[in-house]
Amino acid sequence: GVVLGSMHRVPVESFVEAARDTDVKVIAQNLGMFWDGRPNSTRVLWGEPDVYSDDMCRASAATYWQAGVDGLYLWNNQIIEFARDASYDGQPWREIGAPESLHRMNKHYVVDSPADREMSIYEFGAPPIPEGPLPQSLDVPGDTAEVSVDIADDIAESADSPPPAHATLRLLIVNLTNRDEITVALNDVPLDMSSARIALNYNDCWLDFEVSDGLLKRGWNHLLLQVLSRNPRVSAPLTVASVEAIIEYTTSE
Length: 253
Hints:
Blueprint: H1 13-19, E1 27-29, H2 40-46, H3 54-67, E2 71-73, H4 79-83, E3 107-110, E4 136-138, E5 144-151, H5 155-160, E6 165-174, E7 181-186, E8 189-190, E9 197-201, E10 204-210, E11 219-229, E12 238-249
Parallel strand pairs: 1-2
Antiparallel strand pairs: 3-12, 4-12, 5-11, 6-10, 6-12, 7-8, 7-11, 9-10
């Protein structure tokens, strides 16, 4: 885990591998802590709280179980009631204790960025926080950004065994305008930019892509963005500030 702040996905794989075939147990720490780093537009557009949502907690836990940890450690989650929400009921704490309990439950995956941590632990002389892959700048034509996102849900399986999963890839590209031309590919498959649902809040441009048709896979997914041309009236760079995957299960009528 990290000493202070929060991460959605601590890179635990090297620890799991080092502990393989030993009696050492790997426990993933930091699940569900509140954060100060989410873009303000998430609260304005979707009413997100100042804490990990239940769906985010499920997603974070599911990827840790998938990575092979032996347990999860909820560090200082009791502070949420004091610092953020007196009515916080700790519902995620009752859902994440085993991978099977998370099967076919809604999840919201978030790729880490340095802003997700509340303060630097350098002040305390501790090792640095693992850096997330975001944000990334897309300044001029030809610039690219590559991001990986870990998914624990099997979208294809849900299609054969209801309830089916509805999968959305959500991107935040700051300063993106309709005169910028970019391409987005998920697992080497180009996405149709004209099909993206767009939500704007000042300079924050959110793009939602429907990826329920098998494009989003269980495990690590590779995202590649490239600039083809820029809006000549905007000098500020494009910034890939958030990459998210939202999995929602629906019930049959």
